[in-house]
Amino acid sequence: MSAIISVQGLTKTYPSGFQALKNVNLDIQRGEIFALLGPNGAGKTTLISIICGIVNPGDGRVLADGKDVVQDYRAARQKIGLVPQELAVNIFEKVWDTVQFSRGLFGKAPNPAYLEQLLRDLSLWDKKDSKIIALSGGMKRRVLIAKALAHEPEILFLDEPTAGVDVELRRDMWQMIRTLREKGVTIILTTHYIEEAEEMADRIGVINKGELMLVEDKTALMKKLGKKQLTLQLVEPLATIPAPLEPFCLALDHGGNTLVYTYDADADPQVITTLLRAVQNAHIEFRDLHTTQSSLEDIFVSLVTDSATGATA
Ligand SMILES: Nc1ncnc2c1ncn2[C@@H]1O[C@H](COP(=O)(O)OP(=O)(O)OP(=O)(O)O)[C@@H](O)[C@H]1O
């Protein structure tokens, strides 16, 4: 895969003197779904806004499909669709008119057949003559997506696409995003719902205080930084952990009624057999056992917290 977006040494200091981005380097691969995660104020919107040519970069360079977003703004911007967080439309306009207008903004020739298919795909076709003010919140979001896609961009940015939408619409949006990717559109989304990134993304970027802390394949990330826990529910409570089990660094919970073993998600599975044998040799009986795996949310929280406290992994 080749990079469709290339961010090189990007730094942004707002006129207030606040440094919102610090030497960000990032390549987005053609055809991927990339999720950018970060706490409030981390710099996600600033980064997206610079790539989309809405905010001026400070130092550094951004290329969209090889076009410099400053020097070759129009060509670069034409490649990109942006679904903003906030509704930024004339609410008295009709759906069809607003979508057609968006296409015209990019100097694209009218293509009613394309726009009809777009509105049909977004379940908006029967609302094409409705004024935006008369639509539900979920439909307004779909209109924002239709506007962003009206000029047939190859790259789609979604800034918090499902903030405040109900579960059903969120699932619909996820399906919509997947369908777009199948059609070859590269998707970059920011989200506070880690579950969304876990569900959708091929790769994850974590940004904190203007610094890109990590960019990794999602599955590899969850394997590398994820933890698993094996919990044994004991028949008889233990007062202390017997000496032969000490090397496993077990925790004794629930008044001595459960033994918990925490291990790396990519650890050798043999380690569990060894532990269970040691438990048996120590004459400890258990009535039940189960394993859990840390979510992307656990990993994200520990990354951001560790960086705040200066801890290293
Ligand atoms: N125009 C501006 N002038 C000065 N500071 C700004 C400006 N826009 C953003 N900032 C600051 O830059 C930092 C990054 O903001 P940004 O909106 O990029 O964060 P974010 O990660 O998108 O946050 P959120 O998740 O809350 O949307 C914040 O501290 C914000 O206050």
Task: Describe the sheet with the most strands.
Answer: 6 strands, mixed
Q: Strand share of the residues?
A: 25-35%
The CATH C-level class name of the largest domain: Alpha Beta
Percent range of helical residues: 25-40%
Q: What is the CATH superfamily of the largest domain?
A: P-loop containing nucleotide triphosphate hydrolases
* Residue runs with pLDDT of under 50 for 5 or more positions: none
The main sheet orders its strands as 6-7-8-3-9-10
Distance separating the two termini: 30 Å
Give the class from helix and strand content and strand pairing.
Answer: alpha/beta
- The arrangement of helices and strands along the chain is EEEHEEHEHHHEHEHEEHEEEHEH
Bound ions, cofactors and other small molecules, one mention each? adenosine-5'-triphosphate
Radius of gyration: 25 Å
Separate helix tally: 10
Structure summary, number of beta strands? 14
Number of structural domains: 2
* Mean of residue pLDDT values: 88
CATH topology of the largest domain: Rossmann fold
